[in-house]
Amino acid sequence: DGASNAQLSAIDGIAKEFDLTVEKLSEIIKHFCNEMDKGLEKTGMNVAMIPSFVTGVPTGKEVGTFLALDLGGTNLRVCEIAFEGERIIKVKQHKYRVTETQKTGSARQLFDFIADCVDKFLAEFITDYTENAKIFKMGFTFSFPVEQTAINQGNLIKWTKGFTCSDSENKDVVFMLQEALNRKGVPVVVSALVNDTVGTLLSHSYKDPKTLIGIIYGTGTNGAYYEDISKIKKLNKIPDASEKMIINVEWGAFDSEKKALPITMFDNKLDRESNNPHSQIFEKMISGMYLGEIARNILLHLIDRMLLFDGYSSKELNSNYSFETEYMSTIEADESHTLDNARKILEESLNIPSTTLTDRQIVKRVCQIVGLRAARLSSTTLAAVIIHCGMVECGVSVGIDGSLFEFYPHFSARLKTALRELFGSNVDKIEISLARDGSGVGAALAAMLAATE
Ligand code: ADP
């Protein structure tokens, strides 16, 4: 192509910094395995390894109707889920957008908003809502780090993914939600609190009994898996005779001390400018909320060196988080000779005055570099959990939810390539599938498992 030597060498330099050899992946896995062990031993560790208090494993035969609420990051989802046995599930659902004001205001405002959404959902979608004096049981998927103390109790450790509500850290999120529901007279009891990864794991297990891990690659990233209760040393009371309990790993926080991960200046700039510096470092290299911003930092660096867009940026591209991860998906998927979709994004959405084909090729290359590193890094925590559980040779199923996994081009293929480099042909025994909307069904299952205990 028409790139100059200066452009080529700058891009090669960046590609090198983002490169992840299999040796480096193995080193990261080793470090992560240690962090998992530490988290199982003591509370308050960097990789928190949070006991979910979900001890039953779904059989697929469950029957009953439950509500589910899912506060993920971008949307709030309310669902009614009917289990009819034989692995049959019926779902009614509605999404409500969470605004910036709600994410950054007071906790009371946020939970009042959530209670309003539940009330609206019941009025609109449940036909016998008003005549029926029924009390609905609800599972609450809350995808932020929580120190759980019971199936229906958990204190918020910290907000992530752009949420910063005041007056809520260290408070019980079920209590705050139940209070808001009670204030409005909404006939709902919150009977289970689950992380979205726990929900994804549960709902995938309902379909496939070989499931070991549930994962999210969405706004953030995290995973949950079935752990032997005997290995959860920090549990002081063993809940019942069960052998397994779901652990919410909270791997987004992995390596916040920046010891093992290949951090670049572009990652450090993002971290410094974020509303949670020095935390969620692994998540910041992988998830949908951040990939576009890493790519934007690289583009600005190239612009400042006069190697891109003839040195011109735009007001839009200069503002934080303007280069969305969805744009990267579109640009990576653009296989046309003229990269016309990339041109539209750059010139029309981001107002870059004009772009050459070489510019667009460079932008595409930057997206590939950032997207490839994210997918390869994603393999590390997944591989570590499989190794930790001694399942490399047995084969397991993995349920994955999240827009990044679902929509980002080549994400899943790149992840599998990295796993093949790590595990050789044993990778063929790992069945990875999309577990869409698992968190709703999973929360309802948790509410059911809690009710039958
Ligand atoms: P949640 O907030 O529950 O994690 P999602 O799984 O939908 O919800 O993740 C939303 C994130 O996924 C956003 O940060 C967004 O940047 C990213 N995203 C949405 N659509 C795409 C896409 N087509 N390609 C890549 N990333 C996407």
Task: Indicate the CATH architecture of the domain at 52-207 and 437-451.
Answer: 2-Layer Sandwich
| Rg, Cα atoms, Å | 23 Å
Uncertain regions spanning at least 5 consecutive residues: none
Report the CATH superfamily of the domain at 52-207 and 437-451: ATPase, nucleotide binding domain
- Look at the structure and give the mean pLDDT: 94
Work out the helix count. Answer: 16
Q: How does the major sheet shape up? A: 6 strands, mixed
CATH topology of the domain at 52-207 and 437-451: Nucleotidyltransferase, domain 5
Strand content: 15-25%
N-to-C order of helices and strands:
HHEEEEHHEEEHEHEEEHHHHHHHEHHEH
Strand arrangement in the largest pleated sheet: 1-11-10-9-12-13
**Which shape, going by the Cα principal axes?**
globular
Say how many strands there are.
13
The CATH first-level class of the domain at 52-207 and 437-451 comes to: Alpha Beta
- Helix content bin: 40-55%
Structural class: alpha/beta
Bound molecules: adenosine-5'-diphosphate
Terminal residue distance: 65 Å
Protein name: 2457_t:CDS:1
Organism: Cetraspora pellucida
